[in-house]
Amino acid sequence: MPLKDESRNIELASPRASINNDVFGEIPAEGPNYRDIGWMGTFVLMLKTQVGLGVLSIPYAFDKLGLIPGILCLLGVALIATWGQRIVGVFKRNHADVYSIVDTGEKIGGRPGRELMGFAFMLYWICVAASGMSGISTALNAITLHGACTAIFVALAAFFAFAIGSIRTLGNISWLAWIGGLSIFAALFTLTVAVGLQGRPTEAPKIGPYVSNYKLIGNPTFYEGMAAINSLVFAYSGTPAFFAIISEMRDPRQYKKAMLTCQCTMTGIYLVVGIVVYYYCGTYVSSPALGSAGPLLKRICYGLALPGLMVSTCLLIHYPSKYIFVRALRDSQHLVSNSTIHWITWLSCTFGVTIVGYVIASTVPNFGSLVSLVGALLATLMSFQPMGAMWLHDNWNRRERGIQWRIGVSWSVFVIVIGTYIMIAGSYTAIVSIIDSYTSVSGTNPWSCADKSNSVDLD
Q1: Which of 38, 321, 338, 340 is paired with 444 by a 20 to 30 Å CA distance?
Q2: Domain for residue 445, yes or no?
Q3: 450 to each of 10, 99, 149, 292, 447, how far by Cα in Å?
Q4: Are 339 and 151 in contact (CB under 8 A)?
Q5: HEC assignment per residue over the chain
Q6: CB 315: neighbour CB atoms within 10 A?
Q7: CATH number reported for the structural domain that contains residue 419 in this entry
Q8: Name one Pfam family in it (predicted).
Q9: Contacts of residue 198, Cβ cutoff 8 Å, sequence gap at least 6
Q10: Phi-psi region for residue 408, left (φ > 0), alpha (ψ -120 to 50) or beta?
C-alpha cells in the first residue's frame, strides 16, 4: 500500500503520461483524463446518482404499503439492485470494451439489442433529467415563496444543468458530487429531526390532540401498491450509470468496494428517513416528504437540498450526453483530444439533451405521473432484466454446472421475471394516473407560471 500511495504522489507531481483504454483508446497526456476517479469519488458519484428526489417518496410508499411490508419491499429492491450492480462490475471485467448498458445490449442481442437499449437508455435519462429540472423549479418556488414564474425557474434549472453537465470528465465532476451529497443529507437530517420535534405534521388537523396513525400493515389497492413499489424501484434506479462510472475509474478493481459502500449507505439513509418520517407523520405524510415539516422548515429543507438537486440534474444530463459523444467519436482521435470537432460535438450533445429535457419538463402536465411511468417502464428495463441477461450470457455455457450454477440461473431468471412484472403492472397503473391527470381540473398547463411546490408529486 505505501508503494501504491507513493506512486500516486509521483503521478500527481509529474506530467500525466498517456493512458491506454479499451473504450477511449490512447488517451494523450494533453487530452481530457477519462480515467481519473478514485474509489471515494466513485462512491460519491454512485451515491449522488441514486439519492435524490426518490428518497423523498419513501415515507409515502411506506404509508401505502404499511411499515413492515414497506421495509421488506425496500430491502428486496435493494438486494436485487445491489446484485445487479455487482454484475455490472463483473461484466465490465469480462468485456473491457463495454462503456454503457447499450453496449451490453449489443453483446447479448446484436444490433437490434443495441438500438433497443440505446433508445430506452436515452429516453430514461432524459426524462429523469427533466424531472430534476422540475424538482429544482419546485425548490426555487418553495424557497422564494413563488417569487417568479415557474417557467422561469425551469429555464434557470436547464441553463445550470447544461453549464455544469458539460464538464467533460466524471473525475472533475466528482467534487461537485460531494457538495451535492452533503447538501441532500443535510436536508434529510433536518427533515427527520424536524418531524420528530414538531409533534404535528403540516397536513394533520390543526385542532385537537395529534397521535400518529402510522400502520404496521397497510391495505393498499393494486394501483396504490404498484405506485409505491414504482417509487422504491425508482430510488435504486441509478444502475445504468455505473458502466460509465467504472469506465472512468483509475483502478476498476476497487469498483466492488465503492459499490457496496454506496448501497449500504443509501439503504441505511432510506430506512432511517422512511421509518422516522412515516412514524411521526402517519397518513399525513407529504410527497415529497420535505413538505411534512411545516412552511418554514420546508423552505429551509429545500434550501439545503437545492445544491444536491442541481448536482443530480447535471449528472443526469452528463450520462446520456457522454453516451452519444462516445458513440459518435469512438475510434477517432477527436474523442480524446482538445480539437474543435471534439468541443463542438461534446457541447452539441449536452445542449441537445438539455433542450429535450427542458421541453419535457415544461410541457408535460403533472410530471410526477410521467416520471412514475418512465420509472416503471424503463427503470426496471435498465436495472433488472439486463443484469439477469448479462449473468446468463456469461455463464450459460459454463462447463461446470453444479449447485452454484443452478442457483445463479434460478436467481437470474427470477430477476428477469420480477422486473418484467413490475414493468408491465407499474406501467399500467402509471398510465391510468396520467389519464386521470389529463381529465382532472387541477392538471398543469404547459409552460405554466403556477406554483407547483405545494401540489406536484415528485416521485
Answers
A1: 321
A2: no
A3: 56, 41, 7, 21, 9
A4: no
A5: CHHHHHHHHHHHHCCCCCEEECCCEEECCCCCCCCCECHHHHHHHHHHHHCCHHHHHHHHHHHHHCHHHHHHHHHHHHHHHHHHHHHHHHHHHHCCCCCCHHHHHHHHHHHHHHHHHHHHHHHHHHHHHHHHHHHHHHHHHHHHCCCCCHHHHHHHHHHHHHHHHCCCCHHHHHHHHHHHHHHHHHHHHHHHHHHHHHCCCCCCCCCCCCCCCCCCCCCCCHHHHHHHHHHHHHHCCCHHHHHHHHHCECCHHHHHHHHHHHHHHHHHHHHHHHHHHHHHHHHHCCCCHHHHHCHHHHHHHHHHHHHHHHHHHHHHHHHHHHHHHHHHHCCCHHHHCCCHHHHHHHHHHHHHHHHHHHHHHHHCCCHHHHHHHHHHHHHHHHHCHHHHHHHHHHHCCCCCCCHHHHHHHHHHHHHHHHHHHHHHHHHHHHHHHHHHHHHCCCCCCCCCCCCCCCCCCCC
A6: 29
A7: 1.20.1740.10
A8: Aa_trans
A9: 293, 294, 297
A10: alpha
CA angle (107, 93, 90) in 5-degree steps: 85
Separation between Cα atoms, residue 47 and residue 77, nearest integer Å: 16
Q: What is the pLDDT of residues 169-219, one digit of tens each?
A: 998 888 889 999 899 889 888 988 888 877 777 777 777 788 888 999 999
The per-residue pLDDT for range 395-414, each reduced to its tens digit, is 998 888 899 999 999 999 99
Q: How far is CA 126 from the centre of its chain?
A: 11
The number of distinct structural domains making up the chain is: 1
Q: Residue 21: beta bridge partners?
A: 25
Cell numbers 405534521: residue? 201
Domain assignment of residue 70, yes or no: yes
Give the angle 297-301-302 at the CA atoms, nearest 5°.
120
Whether 13 is covered by a domain: the verdict is no
- Report the interhelical angle of 403-439 vs 222-235 (nearest 10°): 120
Domain coverage including residue 55: 34-439
pLDDT in tens, 231-242: 898 889 889 999
**Quick one: pLDDT at residue 9?**
38
Indicate yes or no: pTM above 0.90.
no
Q: How far apart are CA 459 and CA 233, in angstroms?
A: 11
**Would you give the distance in Å from CA 27 to the centre of its chain?**
29
pLDDT per position as a tens digit, 68-127 = 999 999 999 999 999 999 999 999 999 988 998 999 999 999 989 999 999 989 989 998
316 belongs to a structural domain: yes
The angle that helices 255-281 and 39-50 make with each other, rounded to 10 degrees, is 40
Closest CA to 194 of 304, 268, 307, 51: 304
